[in-house]
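Re: [ENG-882] Designed sequences occasionally contain unexpected residues at chain ends

Forwarding the minimal case from QA. Structure tokens:
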């Protein structure tokens, strides 16, 4: 699917959006819709497994430890400002992204750096509101449709488009999935995704010491919360003044205009702060094969 406009028109024929997307894939790419649904089911199961393993093994990254556990403790003290759903989504996202940093097995949806956001939103939704596996699977398929539009019109690579293309795209996919889970229209799905993308336009990729930890892990957590708000806004009838496809085109143009320092080179942003440079130096001393400044 190349556009949100196309996605909306495909869903107007009485099919649910997930089914419309699968049928489109079948017609255009020749992939059997039933097999595609099964393949997406294995990804969904792998996401669930990644949460179980992340919360059970509690491995830490090189620089980042157990933020998900800290957040869980804080929530249990009933002192939180946010509601249970965004907080649980954030907690899962932090845990899974940390598990990725510790070389755990995750689902790169759409990338390894942004791997916590979708599992956080989908499985926190199931925990808090209840949902059948089929509903979550439909939401995952819809999130894939959103991701495909972004991939085809822009990019999903931090090295090309900055973090707006990784955590931003994952947040947009998650916002679309939540709108779908709540029974929103295809138009609302597109606008939920667009509202999220607009709020992270220009987000740079600046991994400290080149590791997918700082700021990546916390961005997974925070953008999960943003996706919940974007979905609620879209479900409330709020629409992006700039049409969703134009938002993605703007994201692509911004990504192309980003200096190289802000596209995964670990030479700008937080990576270039005194602390970021010091952490890079420490790591280089421990592993001399890492390129020095
Ligand atoms: S900062 Fe860069 S490496 Fe980290 S998640 Fe974002 S795009 Fe990926």
């Amino acid at each position: 699917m190349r556009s949100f406009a196309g996605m909306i028109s495909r869903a107007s024929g009485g099919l649910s959006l997930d089914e419309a997307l699968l049928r489109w894939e079948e017609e255009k790419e020749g992939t059997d819709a039933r097999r595609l649904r099964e393949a997406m089911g294995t990804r969904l199961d792998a996401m669930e497994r990644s949460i179980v393993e992340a919360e059970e093994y509690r491995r830490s990254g090189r620089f980042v430890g157990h933020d998900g556990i800290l957040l869980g403790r804080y929530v249990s003290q009933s002192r939180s400002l946010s509601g249970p759903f965004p907080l649980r989504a954030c907690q899962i996202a932090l845990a899974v992204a940390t598990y990725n940093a510790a070389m755990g097995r995750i689902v790169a949806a759409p990338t390894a750096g942004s791997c916590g956001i979708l599992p956080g939103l989908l499985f926190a939704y199931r925990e808090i509101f209840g949902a059948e596996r089929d509903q979550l699977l439909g939401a995952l398929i819809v999130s894939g449709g959103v991701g495909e539009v972004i991939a085809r019109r822009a990019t999903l690579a931090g090295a090309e488009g900055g973090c707006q293309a990784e955590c931003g795209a994952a947040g947009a996919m998650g916002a679309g999935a939540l709108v779908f889970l709540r029974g929103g229209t295809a138009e609302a799905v597109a606008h939920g995704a667009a509202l999220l993308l607009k709020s992270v336009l220009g987000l740079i990729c600046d991994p400290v010491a080149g590791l997918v930890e700082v700021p990546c892990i916390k961005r997974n957590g925070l953008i999960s919360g943003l996706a919940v708000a974007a979905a609620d806004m879209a479900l409330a009838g709020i629409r992006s003044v700039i049409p969703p496809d134009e938002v993605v085109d703007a994201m692509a143009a911004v990504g192309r205009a980003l200096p190289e320092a802000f596209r995964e080179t670990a030479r700008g942003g937080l990576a270039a702060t005194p602390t970021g440079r010091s952490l890079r130096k420490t790591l280089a001393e421990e592993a001399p094969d890492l390129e020095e400044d």
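QA comment: On inspection the terminal residues look reasonable. The radius of gyration is 19 Å. Proposing we downgrade this to a documentation issue.
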